Amino acid sequence: MIKFPESYTPRWIVFLIDLIICSISISSAFLLRFNFEIPESYFNTLSFIIPFVLFFRSITFLIFKSYAGIIRYSGAKDTERIFLVAISGSLIFIVINAINFFLIKGSYIIPTSVIAIDFLLTVFLMASFRLVTKIIYQELYNPSKEKTDVIIYGAEEFGVITKRTLDRDAESKHKVVAFLDQQNSGKSLEGVTIYPPEQLACIVEKDTVEKLIIAKANITTDEKQEIIERCFQFNIKVLSVPDINTWINGELSFNQIKEIKIEDLLERPPIVLDKTRIKQKLLNKTILVTGAAGSIGSEIVRQLINFNPKRIVLFDQAESPLYDMELDLQEKNKFYNFEIVIGNVADSYRVRKVFETYEPSFVYHAAAYKHVPMMENNPTEALRTNILGTKILTDISNEFNVEQFVMVSTDKAVNPTNIMGASKRIAEIYTQAFNQISDTNFITTRFGNVLGSNGSVILRFKKQIDKGGPVTVTHPEVTRYFMTIPEACQLVIEAGAMSKGGEIFIFDMGKSVKIIDLAKKMIKLSGLTIGKDIQVKYTGLRPGEKLYEELLNDKENTIPTHHSKIMIAKVMHYDIEQVRNDFNELLNMQKNHNNQDIVRKMKEIVPEFKSQNSIYEEIDIELEKDAIQEV
Question: What 3-state class would DSSP assign to 95?
């Protein structure tokens, strides 16, 4: 296959070709003006007129740098530059003509009609030269038969830019066969027909379409999901043009067009925050974020920097992720008012030193062990980090008169069926009870799974798909609530701003999603076919795992707030002294590492804690027998 050389044509050659085009234009203009019979008076002056024209054209070339563009990538800007070159040169000829007529000889050097024809020919020939070169290059370097047929969804500015980007980038090997747009259907754009979205099936029958690129600036979530679902029916891979703010130097490159992610299918309308109220609380305040290197903690930090805090203290035991976070804040966010502190929330001495050194006014407590099967096998560690760590932070926050303590909890704390969920519920109970006797506002925020978090099923599915499968799902009926990390963290901050103390805030998680449906959509987004390219395998529920997650237990209901996505759970109140006694007894068990005793005590503190698919189910049976005997 013939290919252009990798190096570009030197500018002086382009300059020379343009001059040749100009000499052809002026000669042709004379021929056309006089019907190919040039009068002898004008014919004898051509030897002067042609160099005269080329001289002034050269000056305009140098001024507007029409020769500087890369011919094979010519676009609208190059055509605009050619127009400016031609019109300015022609204006020069008109001015010189006028001077010669009125001040010197009383005649024109070049007939005005010839100047007009020369202008049109120059624009046409210079633009045509670039266009033809571009087409030849694209066809030789990237033949149509080797290209992938693509549909662009959106026939407005973004759609046009996307097509030009594909045409310009020879490496992309894509050919746009149709635009989809409801408003402009029936028309043609850049030589490509615009169809209504309903005719996707007809286009697929006619062309072997492999990809669809969403290139629409103001597309709604429902509209995006609808077109993606249609593409799934025809095994069409879906890509998307990023937000214009991410374009490099204001220009879109092919490499920025990315595949649609599962997050795009689950996304909801953006959250509207009460930024004024939040800023009033956080402005010039020192804020401590525990678990600051984790998925939730790091995003809370990124959200907080928008409200101009005095300082953010990032507290975590993970050294490398903290270092990455430090670089991210400095290089990407240009934020420097922070301190990195390595430590464990269960180390009371270390936590106290942090409070003594930085005196935080707000605490966002996101540090926790969150993996259900891991904690089912390690109850002592769940006790140490999730319960003892929360107790230490709560006690010291009260001692140092922290204004507000926001605990990040989980939907697994509702009717818990595993150690992790129960440990978080016990931590909730302690902060709730402590709020009754403290000047610090202790609040809890409770939400379900977040997309893309460390350990998320989304990341697991991605790895499995990249390896070729199988994609493993625990049970065909298992469902979960999902929320994006930024959305969850925005609601955490909003809940903190509206709190009066002691509340458990629950978030509107939308509809519960079947995990098997999630897996199937991710496979389809990867352009694979289930059963042909990749397999789905059921592995059975893991220890402590339940089919359905809940945000409220059966005895609770909710109170609405001013924010449609945030509600307050009405929960029972606990006596602080009883809670302290239970905590002391539970924490003393940590020394012996007797898992059975620890779990038994946890079930006494949280009676609704019923183990599922776990070795600790036998404790539930024993407790039920004890209860019957007491009756």
Answer: helix
Which tokens belong to 597?
Answer: 């005793």
Q: Angle at which helices 76-99 and 46-64 pack, to 10 degrees? A: 130
Domain check: are 133 and 56 in the same one?
Answer: yes
First CA to last CA across the chain, in angstroms? 89
- Look at strands 441-447 and 504-507 and give their pairing: parallel
85 & 165 share domain: no
Q: Is the pLDDT of residue 109 over 90?
A: no
- Residues 6 or more apart in contact with residue 28 via CB below 8 angstroms: 117, 121
Backbone angles phi, psi at 480, to 5 degrees: -145, 155
Separation between Cα atoms, residue 179 and residue 176, nearest integer Å: 8
Contact 345, 408 (CB under 8 A): no
Question: What is the spatial distance between Cα 300 and Cα 96, in angstroms, rounded to a whole number?
Answer: 69
Domain match, 81 and 186 both: no
Q: Among the residues of 242-378, which ranges form H helices?
A: 262-266, 275-282, 295-304, 319-327, 348-358, 372-377
* CATH number of the domain bearing residue 434: 3.40.50.720
Which helix (H) or strand (E) is 355 found in, with range?
helix 348-358
Q: What is the predicted pLDDT for the residue at 2?
A: 42
Pair 203, 253 in one domain: yes
List the structure tokens of 79. Answer: 């055509």
Q: How many CA atoms lie within 13 A of 340 on its CB side?
A: 18
CA proximity to 372, closest of 612, 541, 545, 596: 545
Structure token pair of residue 109: 């050097």
Mean pLDDT of 155-177: 75
Which residues, 6 or more positions from 482, have their beta carbon under 8 angstroms from its beta carbon? Answer: 266, 448, 449, 450, 451, 509, 510, 513, 518
d(CA 23, CA 35): 18
The two tokens of residue 610 are 């019923």
How many CB atoms within 10 Å of residue 498?
18
Rounded CA separation 93/413 (Å):
84
Structure tokens at 195: 């169809």
- Domain annotation covers residue 461: no
The kind and range of the H/E element at 207 are none
In whole angstroms, give the CA distance from residue 621 to residue 603. Answer: 12
Q: Are residues 86 and 209 in the same domain?
A: no
Q: Are residues 437 and 317 in the same domain?
A: yes
Tell me the C-alpha distance between 493 and 486, whole Å.
11
Q: Confidence class of residue 75 from pLDDT cuts 50, 70 and 90?
A: low
What does the pLDDT read at residue 160? Answer: 82
- The Cβ of residue 241 has, within 10 Å, a number of other Cβ atoms equal to 24
Pairing of strands 504-507, 566-570: antiparallel
Type of residue numbered 174? H
d(CA 277, CA 307): 10
Active site residues: 412
Q: Are residues 394 and 365 in the same domain?
A: yes
CB atoms under 10 Å from CB of 613, counted, come to: 17
Instruction: Specify the higher pLDDT residue, 107 or 585.
Output: 585
The number of angstroms, rounded, from the C-alpha of 285 to the middle of its chain's C-alpha atoms is: 29
